[in-house]
From TrEMBL:
Protein name per its UniProtKB record: MFS transporter
GO cellular component, one term: plasma membrane
The organism of origin for this protein: Paenibacillus dendrobii
InterPro entries recorded: MFS, MFS_trans_sf, Sugar_transport-like
Lineage: Bacteria, Bacillati, Bacillota, Bacilli, Bacillales
Keyword Iron-sulfur belongs to the record: no
């Protein structure tokens, strides 16, 4: 049965902007932690860099929610893109002394991410509905997979070929140009209608209101963030540590992203709301199982099993989490009016989970840095998607959007 959902011109433009930003991140972001690691081989340092990002992301979502709701959200989106470019410009300028600036650089990157994704998520909600949201999310995953194939593979080859820091500097410069193109393309998106006054305490109000679906969604998102906060930087770093070659990390990203390309395309085409609950549970369980081979050995082969397994099963888990959360913003005219505050609540919930996961990682690694310790920690944190399903399973059959 073919889907009847369609995407209009504004949705496609938003996808294009998203694709450019993800491409720039795929080119440079994949190797950013490797760049830091080569300056100082310290998992804890990378963990603190991640903490700085996540704190800045959460605070930026909350503090700039007023700007996005009451003023021009498109300017917030553009500011996020510009600051991402500024971040890489500073990394190029600082060079080998970058590890001395972990906190300010992490905060700057977090602010840029927060500005872009807050505006993007609000505009995404406005240009989609319950009928085409899974389709849009499928395309987001598809574009992410395409850029994940091209970006890291190209970067890895270039960095390995040029040796030293020269390859990194060229890749960071290319990313600057892509961010600039993203800003230009964003001007073709229509200026969105401003909302009413911004309610600073709305996230707390939702969590304190008896019967609010966000009392289930928020802890579900926090559980999602526990895995994300650590796996986002650790898997790629482990691939480099195991192989000592940027080209192999690029190859790893090429293989896993190529598989994601297929799985997200299939999910976007066939994954219907009625399949969300069982699909999410199956996906969460399988995402945990593919970590188990690391107990035997942390090698390129076992990490590839993890990467391929995650690429295959992640759409089953993540698409219901994304779509059901945004569906809650469209259950009534009141929730539509509060969409900015609810997007902020969504991101704050993810931030809490990411920080919890990263703090656990930092504390454990300060005590022991053995390969087995890291693997056991990944198994424990990697079980958090199952907890997500436990919290949100009752919300996966939500009503129609307003």
């Amino acid at each position: 049965m073919k889907t009847t959902a369609k995407l209009d011109r504004q949705s496609r433009l938003l996808l294009a902007v998203n694709g450019l930003i993800v491409l720039a991140g795929a080119l440079s972001g994949t190797f950013l932690n490797v760049y830091l690691w080569k300056s100082k081989q310290d998992y804890v340092m990378i963990g603190w860099f991640t903490v700085a990002q996540q704190v800045a992301v959460g605070l930026t979502f909350w503090l700039t929610g007023k700007w996005v709701k009451e003023y021009n959200k498109m300017n917030a989106l553009r500011a996020g893109i510009v600051l991402s470019g500024v971040f890489y410009l500073l990394v190029l300028w600082i060079g080998s002394d970058v590890i001395r600036w972990i906190w300010p650089l992490g905060l700057l990157l977090g602010i840029s991410i927060g500005l872009f994704w807050l505006a993007f998520n609000v505009v995404y909600f406005e240009v989609t509905d319950r009928e085409n949201r899974d389709l849009f999310n499928g395309w987001v995953g598809l574009l992410g997979s395409i850029t994940g194939i091209v970006g890291p593979w190209f970067s890895g080859l270039l960095i390995s070929w040029l040796k030293g820091d020269k390859g990194y500097r060229i890749i960071f410069t290319i990313s600057l140009g892509i961010y600039a193109l993203g800003v230009v393309l964003s001007f073709f998106l229509k200026k969105r209608e401003n909302g009413s006054g911004y309610h600073w305490a709305e996230p707390v109000t939702q969590l304190r209101t008896k019967g609010s679906p966000w009392r289930l969604m928020a802890p579900g998102l926090a559980a999602q963030g526990i895995r994300e906060g650590v796996f986002a930087f650790l898997v790629g770093l482990l691939v480099f540590v195991a192989t000592k070659q940027e080209a192999r990390l690029g190859q790893f990203s090429l293989i896993t992203s190529a598989i994601s390309l297929l799985t997200y395309w299939l999910a976007g085409k066939w994954y219907k709301p009625k399949f969300r609950s069982p699909g999410m549970l199956v996906g969460a369980l399988l995402l945990w199982i593919v970590i188990v081979p690391l107990l035997w050995k942390t090698s390129y082969g076992t990490l590839l099993i993890l990467g391929i397994g995650s690429a295959v099963f992640m759409p089953l888990y993540i698409l219901p989490m994304i779509s059901s959360g945004f569906d809650l913003m469209g259950t009534s005219n009141e929730t539509v009016e509060k969409r900015v505050e609810l997007v902020v609540l969504r991101e704050l919930s993810l931030m809490v989970g990411r920080l919890v996961g990263t703090f656990i990682f930092i504390v454990v690694l300060m005590l022991s840095k053995t390969s087995l310790t890291i693997t056991v920690l990944m198994l424990i944190l990697g079980a958090s998607p199952i907890a997500s399903w436990v919290f949100v399973r009752k919300l996966l059959h939500g009503g129609k959007s307003a």
